[in-house]
Amino acid sequence: MQSKRSGKLALFDLDNTLLRGDSDHAWGEFLISKKLVNESEHRQQNDYYYDQYKQGNLDIHGYVAFTLKPILNMDDNQRMRLHAEFMQNSVTPIVLEKGQALVQQHKDAGDYCIIITATNEFITTPIAGLFDVDQLFSTELEVVNGNYTGRISGTPCYKDGKVTKLKAWLDIQKDGLNLANAVFYSDSINDLPLLREVASAVAVDPDRLLEEKAQTEGWEILSLRT
pTM for this structure? Predict the structure, then answer.
């Protein structure tokens, strides 16, 4: 039985917040394990983009194109089967039990739960399903004639883009949801724009820069890994 809605927003970053790792980077390693890409070249590029992300200067358009290139010529059934194997082998082992419990806690309180992530929708839609959240905001993908092009559609869900996409959605809601009554959980300094917008910012197993910022701002610091 669903709890009565509280009128509050609970926002969760995904990678390295609810997961013990990064699903985008794990996807690259999974493709290597399936021998769908050249191991040394793909790992070098995958690590390069991941380092960019950690430093806060990711070329997200380049990363999405790189991430999708090996599957662009596949049909939907092939991609679905591949992703199901990715979920079983690479994602399920890094789902944090305390992350699932945290989401459930907010659901039980009647909060409207959203995962908001820079990782693209192909990778993250099935992962969001594991947490049974109300909504997923991710980097959307361009589709032409039923096929991915390797390009991003609209605003990337990254840095200020998270704020832009979320505010655009809130503007058309009629249930009173707003950022002034929201909590956001994240590990990454990349999420500073949205962390600054919410009523309660929580740094979850934060990277060094976010930990320093959280200490300065007096934000809660939480670990879902211990």
Answer: 0.95
The per-residue pLDDT for 3 is: 60
Give CA–CA dist 122/83, Å, rounded: 9
- Residue 136: its H or E element: strand 135-139
Helix and strand counts by DSSP (H, E) for the chain: 9, 8
Please tell me the predicted confidence (pLDDT) of residue 1.
41
Average pLDDT, the chain: 96
- pLDDT, one tens digit per residue, over 156-204 is 999 999 999 999 999 998 788 999 999 999 999 999 999 999 999 999 9
End-to-end Cα separation, the chain, in angstroms: 30
Provide the pairing of β-strand 135-139 with 112-120: parallel
Structure tokens at 123: 């990778």
Identity of residue 62:
G
143, β-bridge pairs: 148
Question: How many C-beta atoms lie closer than 10 Å to residue 175's C-beta?
Answer: 9
**Residue position matching structure tokens 């590990």:** 187
Q: Which of 54, 43, 135, 128 is nearest to 87 (CA)?
A: 128
**How does DSSP classify residue 189?**
G
Residue 122 confidence (pLDDT) above 70 = yes
Q: Report the SS3 class of residue 143.
A: strand
The CATH code that applies to domain 9-222 is 3.40.50.1000
- β-strands 200-204, 182-186 pairing: parallel
The position carrying tokens 């197993």 is: 205
Residues forming the active site: 13, 15
Cα–Cα nearest to 117, from 7, 219, 13: 13
